[in-house]
Amino acid sequence: MIKDQVRTQTYRNAIFRNRDRIAGKVVVDVGCGTGILSIFCAQAGARRVYAVDASDIAIQANEVVKANNLSDKIIVLHGRVEDVEIDDKVDVIVSEWMGYMLLYESMLGSVIIARDRWLKPGGLILPSFATLYMAPISHPDRYKESIDFWRNVYGIDMSAVMPLAKQCAFEEPSVETINGENVLTWPHVVKHVDCFTVTIQELESVSTTFKFRSMMRAPFHGFAFWFDVQFSAPALLSFSNNPQASYFGTLENVIDTSQSKKRANPSEALVLSTAPEDPPTHWQQTLIYFYDPIDVEQDQLIEGSVTLSQSKENPRFMNIQLEYASGGRSFVKQSVMR
Amino acid sequence: MIKDQVRTQTYRNAIFRNRDRIAGKVVVDVGCGTGILSIFCAQAGARRVYAVDASDIAIQANEVVKANNLSDKIIVLHGRVEDVEIDDKVDVIVSEWMGYMLLYESMLGSVIIARDRWLKPGGLILPSFATLYMAPISHPDRYKESIDFWRNVYGIDMSAVMPLAKQCAFEEPSVETINGENVLTWPHVVKHVDCFTVTIQELESVSTTFKFRSMMRAPFHGFAFWFDVQFSAPALLSFSNNPQASYFGTLENVIDTSQSKKRANPSEALVLSTAPEDPPTHWQQTLIYFYDPIDVEQDQLIEGSVTLSQSKENPRFMNIQLEYASGGRSFVKQSVMR
Questions:
Q1: Does A199 map to a domain?
Q2: What digits encode the pLDDT tens for the residues B2-40?
Q3: Residues of B in contact with A36 (CB under 8 A)
């Protein structure tokens, strides 16, 4: 994932832009992996960086730190944030915790634990906010390739295979890259996460109702989910060290976002976006396709609700309960992201 | 896999070219899947086709047969070849049984069982022969992308991560598409399978020794494996109905193949090839990379042995034991295809 240039470059920019809040301070890198974010923080002048990772990658991170002569600044801690000990109080938490669809296998829980254990009041968390979006999409090429193919295979009618093909292709959420033209409406905010205040309970089940109006006449094939994370706008934070104030400041940005595809003032906050219209990342988008497309007219209403929750079958899995209605018909689709 | 046009089109050609041996005859399609090969056989004039599949896809195959009004010709049997009953003796077995690297999760065992249970003496098996090849390869781009990347990441020396990166990238065999330019020598035949005579015992462990001379100076990154299958050359089969005779006839072709990249006389037998120089298929090639490349000179000897055998850990897995020596150094690499 370090090879995802959009990701790594945005983190690097975010850390360097926040140099005045990092220089001379104590940083924790939650889930440090190979340690690259810790090194960026050291380069930005951090007095001390605690690089924490529960997996054996911590051993390599320690070697990387040594090879770059940063052992006096970066302390690699091989263990879970629940278990490792840090004597300092920390000024900054940096973490790349986001999973597919933001919340799938996300490490946000570890960031919350680190925050509650170590972060000084008024401390900085990078990224500071995260927003999960959804929108109806049309993707005729994908549908055609997966399903319509069976209508005629070398002159043979194989449409009897189509129900099975639909099940194979569309039962589970699919991580793939679509583009702006596939999206039928402005996105809806499924969940806005304020990293300064979010609780673990708040993430156990996420629910929202949505109402879209299709911007065009098209076959509506399913919903796409994507997210962005914001690295606190320095301008907003300088008004107040109160996280609540910066929260509302940033929320306005988010509301703006839901009304226009491009952010009005990108200079205010640095955003790492995984939206279809932005450069692709390893997170791509997560698609939930219907078994059969719904033909929608321009301005046709699409409404319903979605609930994302931990699977009882396996806590690593995510259940996605979708209810949606359009053109007088209503549907339910339950998917599991495994 | 039906979407692999090289595969489906070659089977279709093979069946239609053998029309004189199929028309009016009884065919078994082993592992019929959606039933497309059975339908090709019916189109080629088969009197009766038994389409056998142990998986639930047989239910769809039966629907496809009905939708194409072929229920009087094609009998779908939902079960294993060991268990289903066919009253007829059969003239032709058709099957698409080949796995990655030919033998990984291959269904050749089912073809052998079907042959021994039902095939008339002198009957036809399509494909008739299969050959697994190997050759040393050079693939600097892949190596660079996976490993050299870590030498310098945003100006940071991350080479401490390289041993782990090598292990992640190169521990297990990798199914990918290379091309003719990656191949350093003519290929070596690891195993030639005569579908008329092969036994299950013969497939349990396959061993060969090899001796290559590099055709160029290059970094030698590993070995590639690929296969082809031949659909009996009608010319050869018309000389004799004795499978042994056709075996030797075809083997000469195979020996030719190992000495020139392109077959001398492609009109003699129809070949479905998964070689790097041929159009890509869903089988691609199987690569076993070394952790570190070996720099070889032009004409430098590369020798050693390879053994492919069922894993004791899990009978589905395949162990690949490679011993190789070049430039006075020798190496051992054990991989598991899971």
A1: yes
A2: 789 999 999 999 999 999 999 999 999 999 999 999 999
A3: 153-154, 156, 158
